[in-house]
């Protein structure tokens, strides 16, 4: 497709596009820290704030709901009302959550704060909109840089929270405060990002989408705890699917929409979104199982290495660092090897990671090789799918297209986590998952990675995009 006014935006005098990319990467660090520091903190907060396991599961559910619901809302607002103003509002939302939990750690502030933190889902779609306007030729490089920083700060966030909150868990919340302040200070370095459409968002499909995602995600997230035949699961899941069908029908057939789903007529949008779903299914959903495996003692469970929470967080840096390297290399791989080969390769590397984990799980060095491969596959797909998700899409829908890809990732993660929980429940032994259950999880996630590769094989570069990802 051709360019429009958005691609005519200039970077303000005195700032290069490189400066803009660095600022974006540092802003994305806030996203990585907040996504990395919650998981190790919540279990440790149980005795301090009188939070039981059921409440912790509820807090995780709130986080999943926030990610799913806010993704299309924030990205669509960016296209309609301007990328930089909506980005600033998203950062303020996250900063409010960060400060609230740090200043007054309590059950209610943690619940509110976790929901506010999900505002990070808009960072990448909004900054991609700015970058596509100000420097379309640097979109892939910018996305790779942002994802590289995201990957490394997810691991660093968990480790820092564990170190700072080792004796007083609530102090771990302060880890994210300086990153929130820095992100707010960096927003003025970014250009406006083109002329917003000022289109009014349709309320009915917005509500249908938001409530539908709420019901669907709740059913998948709580099915293992409530029981898959529990009336609450059936009711929330059924209503969620029905409302999502209403949303899809309205946004596919009317001019006045919430999310313009006509972009799915483009083959690369369908392929990249489908591959992203399977990538999410096969990757992020394994992180909790990885912690369980490393924490377990082989003498009692039959597997594991008996590591502490801090040791597990330190070991996860292997994933973060290999993801960091893979993300930085993605731009070159897309240019040299091609888009299809890069996407397919990411799935094959993930599949190999689970094969190595399964075969060498009795050896810590061998398992670490599997983790390194896992990190490589993670970084490759995180950077490549996000860059390719918007290529060939009308510039006025850049954030929306990126948001749809983020939503596909979130849903893939939720479905993958539900399947992992289902397998864990089916292979219980003495109250813990059995070795056969772990093998079943590895095989299932490897199959998901293969499905991502098979989906990616259908990718065809848009005719209006050059091999460097620049619109003709």
UniProtKB/TrEMBL annotation:
Pfam families: MFS_1 (PF07690). It is found in: Cell membrane. The chain crosses the membrane at residues 12-34, 54-74, 86-104, 110-131, 143-166, 172-190, 202-221, 233-250, 271-295, 307-329, 341-358, 407-427, 439-457. It comes from the Bacteria. The keyword Transmembrane applies. It is a multi-pass membrane protein. GO terms for molecular function: transmembrane transporter activity. GO terms for cellular component: plasma membrane. GO terms for biological process: response to antibiotic. Residues 20-464 form the Major facilitator superfamily (MFS) profile domain. The keyword Membrane applies. Keywords: Antibiotic resistance, Membrane, Transmembrane, Transmembrane helix, Transport. This is MFS transporter. It comes from Streptomyces sp. NBC_00148. The lineage of its organism: Bacteria, Bacillati, Actinomycetota, Actinomycetes, Kitasatosporales.
